[in-house]
Design brief:
2 helices; about 90 residues; single chain; 5-stranded antiparallel beta sheet; Nuclear Transport Factor 2, Chain: A
Length: about 90
Amino acid sequence: MKMNAMKSMSLIAIAIFLSSCSSSEFEIKENEVPKDVLNAFKAKYPSVQVTEWEAEKEDGKFYFEAEFKDGDKKKEVHITPDGSSVTEE
């Protein structure tokens, strides 16, 4: 229960920080990524290991970015906070 409250507070802090900037990003740990985002990523890429997570705000939109390797290629995907949209860059 305390861990869920801490995750919620972390997400709120990230959202407040990003809302004060027009465009920004910063690295976060996987345990700070919302469960819906993790589930959406794992559903689309079940055997891939994320090398870096970022929280980003760009053009007024907030999302999470996962960086990973697919074979020899480095890839990035943007995932909405509710996990409803996963798009590759």
